[in-house]
Every structure is written in C-alpha cells, then in structure tokens.
C-alpha cells in the first residue's frame, strides 16, 4: 500500500485540516502523518464526506460544520484548490463520546486532471469510508447535475461486497452505503411541483423518478443513474440553499458575518449544520461494529492498497483484515499491560506467593477486560485463548524465578548463620558430654536469626528443612552421646510441620486462584455473550433498515408504474429478508462453542 509522509504536517494535532489522500500520478496515496493522527482517536466517528464539482463551495460548508471560518482551503479562482482528500476532525459538545471527521474531496470534472477513472476511485473511497455522503450540486436538480453523479452507476463495477462475489453482490450495498445528502447551492427555482409547494426532500424524490420509456439510450442512462441512487443509498435527504450574498461578496464568503448573508441561506445553513451535528449515523462496518480512528486507518489502508494493486476494493476482505489487525493489537496491548505488571513485581524483590497470586488474578482480569473493550467480536476466541496461555505462562515463569531467587538467597543466608555450627560439627566439637544441649542451643539461635531474616521468603522453610535433613546423620551421631533424642526429634518435627503448613497454605492459595479464574472466565463469557447479542441486534437492525428502504422503493416503483423495477426491488427485499432471518437465528452457543472449550 502506498503511504507518503508530509514534512509540513502538524503531528498529532488537528488545529487545521490535513491531507489524508494524495492524488499522485493518478494514483491514490495515503499520508502517513494523517494516519498517525487518526490512530490516536479511540472514540466512534461520524464520518462526513463531501463531493461535487470543482469551485462550488464544498470547503466553505465543511468549515461551517467544523465551527470555524477558516480551515479547508476556500478559493474563488478558476483553479481548484482541493486535491485528493483532506480531513479535519472536531469534537462537538453534543457528541462528547464521538468525533466528527470531515472529508473534503477534490472537485468533479477538474480540467487539470482529465482522468475520469481517478474521480471514480476517489469517490468510491469516500463512499467506503463515510457514514454520510454529501453531494454539493448547483442551481437545481436536473439531468446535468445528476450526470455529475454518473460515477454512482460505476460503483458495482468498482466496489466488491464479498471476497467471492455472485450475482447478488451489489444487493448488499444498501447495508453499508452511507446516507446520501444532496445540497442544492444557489437554488434559482421555486420549490413547487404541479403548483404545490414541496420540501427539498420531496423535490429530491420527485427528481429521482424513472422515465416510463427506455427505448432511447439516453433514457436508459437517465433511469440507470436514478436506480443506482435509489437502490444503493439506504436513506436520502436534501437541503436547498439560495444564493448566499451579492455576487461581488462571494469571494469573501468565509469572512462575512451572518448579517451580511441572505436570511434564507443562513436559515438553511443552520438546518444543515444541526442535521449533521445531531445525526446518529456514526460509521460502522457491516455487522454493526463501530469504527474508531484506528479502525478507520486499517480500512483506509486496505481499500487504498487494493486500488493500488489494481484489485477491486472488497468490503468483506477489508473488514476481515480490520478485525484480525484490531484483535491482534488488542491482545498485544492487553498482554503488554499484564507483562509490565508482572515484570514490576518480579523486579520488586517480593517473595510472597499470596501476593503473586493476588496480582495475577487482578492483572489478568484487567488485561482481559482491556482486550474485550478494544477487540471486535469476530474471531476473537483464538486471541483470548492465546492471551490466557501467555499470561499463565508468564505467571508460571515469574513463580519459578521467584522461587529460584528465594532459594538462592535463603541458602546464602542459611550458610552464613549455620557456619559456626558446620565448623563445630566438622571439628567434632559437639562430641562431648552435654554436646547435644550445646547443639540445640546453637541451632535455636541460628534458626531464629534465619527465620527473622527470611520470614517473607517463599523458600525459607524448604531450604531449612533440606539443611536439617542433610545434616541428620551428624545429628544422629551426636545423639548417641546424649540422652536428649526426644527433644531433638521434636525440634526437627516442628520444622517439618511448618513446611507441611506452608504446603497446605500454598495449595489453598492455588485453589483460591483457580476459583478466581473461574469467576473471571464467567465474567468474560458474560461480556462476550452481551457483545454477541449487541452485534446480533446491530446486524438485524442494519438488515431491517435495508429491508424497509427496499420495501419503500418497491412501493414507489409500483406507483410509478415500473413493474420490472418493482419486481427487482422485491427480489432484493427477499434476499435481505433471508439474511435477516439468518441473523436473528444466530446462536451464541454455536458462536461461542470454542470459547466454552477454552473457559
């Protein structure tokens, strides 16, 4: 995939627009700096893309949506300023947990390009990436303005829904296509049909009616364009703007105050801005998954990469790649969080098994929660399994290293406190009357000092017991010279009892750890189940919206006397209905079968 870097870009800031897509030698190239900025966005995005003829004021209205007078380049000369696609993200008070991402595309029919295929690539990308697609037209809705949208008829040839397309491939477009908004700039006609006043929305729908006859080639092209708009875009609306101000003032439009503008223009601009700012259609991929800045970047990379390779951008393949990238990144971040905590514990010189188990239970639960929040439902089970395995492996490694270090420190300390006793055993100092009493006294003192210095060590008892067992033959030899056998055995037995107690306590802690894991796994399954049900509902809602749209179009075709179009709309409706029925029958038990095996 082609990516280039803009040396003048402001890193990680969006104080002003930034070019997202370059148009270099009639090929689309992503700007690496823009991708870095987008990757910092963790919130869902309302993505608004605007297209239209060159020098028709697209940038001005996008600046209005951004709440700024200056931003996207606005110019009234004959030369088009916007090349490729520019972006600007803004946060809105009424959308505190979402981001408004504005995309400004280069003008249709720019004479400096002369390549219509390049236009098609840019607008196909804008449709693929946006949740609201705005066409900025001039004067009124006529054949010429609709002709500027002829690229819509090419979409089925330029966008692929499935990795293995069939005859119904384009029937799914309505499921992921953005809302279509038509802006009529400098409206000159009276908004009436057959003498009856109509709204801009009614005017748009009237303009999209088909001609009864398709004998002539022009009539077929006329109808085909309207069919594509009606069949592909799930919802449509229209805003009609009168001329904003006196022609002499247009060059300074972005600098004018509302009092200097036409009252009707200001009113319609306010309606348009409010409509976009309060719109609920945030960007989602098929199936209802929300698109954040990171996910937007992966989609852009996939689509532009396919275009660069001369392959049709495929929605299904791009979403599958996005899911894999996002879930792997979520798992990597969660594992890093967990590993950092374990590393910090390992370097803290803490030797408490209980504290390690408590830390493992807490951090592994938090890491899995992090993964759940960032990951996407599809294919997340394998990443959960790998994450669990790696966290458990890290825990075992830390436990082994902790015991090893504890053993080494305890052995070093025990050797030091027992050095005089070892020396006396070697020199046969205790092989005399009362020698065993002297040995007991020395052992008591050494063990007391050892325990005080190693009481927080996991291996203190095991190391001490090993030492006493190792020296047992020396103690037995001294026993023969003394009558305190019972006392001596009781003292060694006390140490063994302490070791047994610690082993029992360790077993209890492991049982507590397993119980905590079971509780955590149940919580995870509950979270996954909820996300599955949410995703199922989103997918069903998405299909229901598409069905309602197709049903509405079918009825409109019937009213227009378009029997064949109504039948085709009926076929699309039945296709979507079948998918809806399949989606509503999705079973979590089937979806989560592998997860149930893991947990």
Helices and strands, with pairings:
Layout: E1 3-4, E2 18-24, E3 27-31, H1 32-39, E4 45-52, H2 58-66, E5 85-92, E6 95-105, H3 116-129, E7 132-138, H4 143-147, H5 155-158, H6 173-176, E8 179-185, E9 192-193, E10 196-197, H7 200-207, H8 217-232, E11 236-240, H9 263-277, H10 293-308, H11 315-346, H12 353-374, H13 381-417, H14 419-426, H15 435-454, H16 460-470, H17 472-479, H18 485-559, H19 563-584, H20 588-591, H21 593-598
Parallel strand pairs: 1-3, 4-6, 4-7, 7-8, 8-11
Antiparallel strand pairs: 2-3, 2-5, 5-6, 9-10
Notes on the structure:
This protein is an alpha/beta fold and 599 residues long. The chain contains 21 helices and 11 strands. Helix 3 runs antiparallel to helix 10 (293-308). The model is unreliable at 5-13, 76-81 and 484-488 (pLDDT under 50).
Q: Which stretches of 5+ consecutive residues score pLDDT under 50?
A: 5-13, 76-81, 484-488
- Span of the ends, CA to CA: 39 Å
Radius of gyration: 36 Å
Helix fraction?
Answer: 55-70%
Instruction: Look at the structure and give the mean pLDDT.
Output: 78
* Class from helix and strand fractions: alpha/beta
Strand % is 5-15%
Could you tell me the number of beta strands?
A: 11
Instruction: Write out the strand line-up for the largest beta sheet, numbering strands in chain order.
Output: 1-3-2-5-6-4-7-8-11
Query: What is the general shape?
Result: elongated
**What's the story with the biggest beta sheet?**
9 strands, mixed
Q: How many distinct helices?
A: 21
């Amino acid at each position: 995939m082609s990516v280039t870097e803009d040396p003048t870009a402001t890193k990680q800031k969006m104080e002003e627009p930034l070019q997202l897509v370059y148009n270099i030698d009639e090929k689309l190239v992503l700007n690496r700096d823009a991708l870095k900025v987008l990757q910092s966005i963790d919130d869902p995005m309302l993505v608004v893309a605007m297209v239209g003829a060159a020098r028709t004021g697209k940038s001005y209205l996008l600046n209005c949506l951004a709440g700024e007078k200056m931003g996207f380049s606005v110019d009234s000369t004959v030369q088009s300023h916007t090349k490729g696609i520019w972006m600007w993200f803004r946060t809105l008070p009424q959308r505190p947990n979402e981001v408004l991402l504005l995309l400004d595309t280069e003008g249709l029919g720019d004479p400096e390009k002369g390549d219509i295929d390049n236009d098609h690539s840019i607008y196909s990308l804008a449709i693929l990436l946006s949740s609201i697609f705005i066409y900025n037209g001039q004067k009124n809705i006529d054949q010429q303005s609709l002709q500027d949208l002829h690229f819509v008829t090419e979409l089925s040839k330029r966008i692929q829904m499935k990795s293995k397309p069939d005859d119904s491939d384009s029937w799914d477009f309505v499921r992921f296509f953005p809302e279509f908004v038509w802006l009529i700039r400098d409206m000159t006609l009276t908004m009436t049909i057959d003498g009856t006043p109509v709204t801009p929305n009614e005017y748009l729908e009237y303009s999209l009616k088909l001609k009864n006859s398709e004998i002539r080639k022009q009539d077929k092209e006329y109808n085909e364009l309207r069919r594509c708009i009606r069949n592909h875009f799930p919802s449509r609306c229209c805003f009609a703007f009168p001329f904003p101000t006196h022609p002499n003032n247009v060059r300074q439009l972005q600098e004018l105050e509302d009092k200097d503008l036409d009252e009707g223009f200001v009113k319609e601009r306010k309606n348009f801005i409010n409509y976009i700012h309060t719109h609920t259609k945030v960007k989602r991929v098929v199936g209802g998954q929300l698109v954040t800045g990171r996910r937007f970047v992966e989609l852009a990379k996939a689509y532009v990469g396919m275009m660069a390779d001369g392959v049709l951008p495929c929605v299904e393949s791009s979403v599958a790649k996005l899911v894999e990238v996002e879930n792997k990144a979520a798992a990597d971040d969660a594992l890093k969080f967990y590993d950092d905590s374990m590393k910090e514990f390992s370097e803290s010189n803490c030797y408490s098994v209980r504290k390690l188990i408590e830390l493992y239970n807490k951090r592994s639960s938090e890491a899995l929660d992090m993964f759940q929040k960032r990951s996407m439902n599809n294919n997340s089970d394998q990443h959960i399994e790998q994450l669990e395995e790696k966290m458990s492996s890290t825990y075992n490694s830390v436990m082994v290293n902790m015991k090893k270090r504890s053993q080494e420190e305890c052995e070093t300390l025990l050797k030091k406190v027992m050095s005089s006793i070892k020396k006396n055993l070697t020199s046969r100092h205790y092989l005399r009357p009362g020698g065993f009493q002297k040995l007991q006294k020395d052992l008591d003192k050494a063990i007391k000092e050892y325990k005080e210095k190693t009481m927080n060590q996991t291996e203190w008892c095991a190391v001490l017991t090993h030492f006493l067992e190792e020296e047992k033959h020396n103690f037995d030899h001294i026993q023969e010279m003394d009558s305190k056998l019972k006392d001596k055995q009781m003292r060694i037995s006390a140490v063994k009892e302490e070791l047994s107690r610690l082993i029992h306590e360790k077993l209890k802690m492991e049982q507590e750890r397993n119980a905590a894991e079971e509780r955590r796994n149940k919580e995870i399954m509950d979270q996954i189940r909820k996300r599955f049900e949410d995703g199922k509902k989103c997918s069903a809602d998405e299909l229901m919206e598409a069905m309602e749209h197709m049903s509405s179009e079918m009825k409109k075709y019937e009213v227009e006397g378009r029997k064949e179009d109504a039948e085709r709309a009926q076929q699309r409706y039945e296709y979507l209905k079948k998918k809806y029925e399949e989606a509503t029958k999705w079973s979590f038990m089937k979806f989560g079968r592998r997860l149930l095996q893991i947990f």
